[in-house]
Amino acid sequence: xxxxxxxxxxxxxxxxxxxxxxxxxxxxxxxxxxxxxxxxxxxxxxxxxxxxxxxxxxxxxxxxxxxxxxxxxxxxxxxxxxxxxxxxxxxxxxxxxxxxxxxxxxxxxxxxxxxxxxxxxxxxxxxxxxxxxxxxxxxxxxxxxxxxxxxxxxxxxxxxxxxxxxxxxxxxxxxxxxxxxxxxxxxxxxxxxxxxxxxxxxxxxxxxxxxxxxxxxxxxxxxxxxxxxxxxxxxxxxxxxxxxxxxxxxxxxxxxxxxx
Length: 260
What we know:
Layout: H1 3-9, H2 18-27, H3 35-42, H4 50-69, H5 77-89, H6 94-107, H7 114-124, H8 129-143, H9 151-163, H10 168-180, H11 194-201, H12 209-222, H13 225-231, H14 238-259
Helix pairs in contact: 2-4, 2-6, 4-6, 4-7, 4-8, 8-9, 8-10, 11-14, 12-14, 13-14
């Protein structure tokens, strides 16, 4: 049984405890106390466990997406479509899609415990940098769903980024990449501009061939889908990781072509 089957079957989906456990429990219409998190540790489901991180990532992704969408006071039709597009993109089955939709709605509530959830999410992921960056990029893409980034959304994205330990310079880079890639439009196969290519690889336009190649190899290694799943990326998000490596490869090829 894969991750999705287990979460729906209850094998470990409710073992997190804390705000993440409460959210995933609420999405199934159940109440779970914090003691279940302690019980899970005794059974080998402590923080850092791959499947536990997958549950945390999935729960945080859709609930915070709903919270960011409500940041400007209303959730637009474009933002709802974006959330559904992400669900489609992940090819969630009907049951797991219902869970994602409920999490999105939980995030819209005024009582949503954002800071507590971010603290637990960072602890659960054991500060896995690439995983956290991918999470942040998903949130930025969702915020750009209607083509613009509202000041209230930008403010909360910066707050989320800071809480997760992402430096402001890296956040700016991620936002620039999303904006240059068409905002919330995922899966683009268009050749990137040279400026976008450099931003994607995180190097300056004056970087040497060796620096560009080093950045490319490092990013390809970090974003390898199998490695990310091993670190806790839900299997359903492997396609997203594969597209990221494709984006990195296209950026590298664009720079090589420009350099001759």
